Fold:
Amino acid sequence: MLQRSIFFIALVTLVFPTLSHAQAEIVVDTVTIQKARVLEVTNQRDIILPGTDLPSQLQTIKAEVLEGTAKGAVVMFENDFTQLKTGDLFYLRHLTNELEGRDIYSVSDTYRLNILLWLTAAFLVLLFLFGGIQGIRGLASLCGSFVLIFYLLLPGILSGYSPVVVSIGVSSLIIILGSYITHGFNKTTSAAVLGMIGTVTITGIVAFYVVSAGQLSGYTNEEAVYLSFGTHGGVNLVGLLFGGIMIGLLGVLYDIAIGQAVAVEELFRAGTHLTRAEVYKRGIRIGKEHIGALVNTLAIAYVGMSLPLLLLIQHSSTSSVAVLLNSELFATEIVRILIGSIGLILAVPITTAIASHMLAHTTGPSGHAHTH
Structure:
């Protein structure tokens, strides 16, 4: 018995360090993504995806790597992702398992940058031709907005600052920067800016309450999950959701606030005898028509982005409509639509009231406000 015990202890002493050393030397797979071109497609056939009843196509691809350390290398692999043809450009995913000495190739994504560049060029040409100096100002405003989002909003949320304060603050800066760059420094623009900032502040408070009361976590898509894991939970996803709602509101808020301020200015120009109360009443009448059009536009835009969710409602047989609407995925989209619509509605009376006060008795050439 004693001999067996001594033998077991000796065996554990010899084997355990070896196992520990092997575990310490576990090598993580290396993944690189490189641009490649399809040289040849062979053996294309129909298959059924394992574990599902979904039909798919499988093809054997011979491709040449066009960049990186493996430039010029020719590889062959089977592809059941996006179907390619000879001459197509794509991004090749190369997984290297150093422990087993294996190289695994697959299609990461098709190459779309050329299409995006052509589309961008067409947009810029049309903007310069038909937008003129105003179009250039709008583009400069857009670039400035992106700078504020990437260098203030996102770092602020990542650093753990209050998402309400950061989102409302950055939204206000975007409003100020974009409005004055695009429409110039005048009282009409200032009235629109004050109206937008007031609307964003009120809407932001409402949005924060709704997100909190609805217990929305921000885990509504795979990007949020990857971001949470990638930062070890360091990102406030609720704050990110709140920031997204506020930034999404700005696009249409610009339109209605500037439109209301200009409408009030023109009413004062056309009817110098009108009082502030009369102009406010007429401005609200114009705003009602604007609200109807923009709320419809906003809702349809969100519906267009959420078509897969709507199809899920139509084809779901395991859950009732109430259960699906209550799920965070659907509830988040509904909150986006309703918060955006509330912001648009509030912008009309707020901006009209401010503009009616600031632009009273405006006369002079059209384009700039002059108060006497």
Q: What stands out?
A: The longest strand covers residues 30-48.
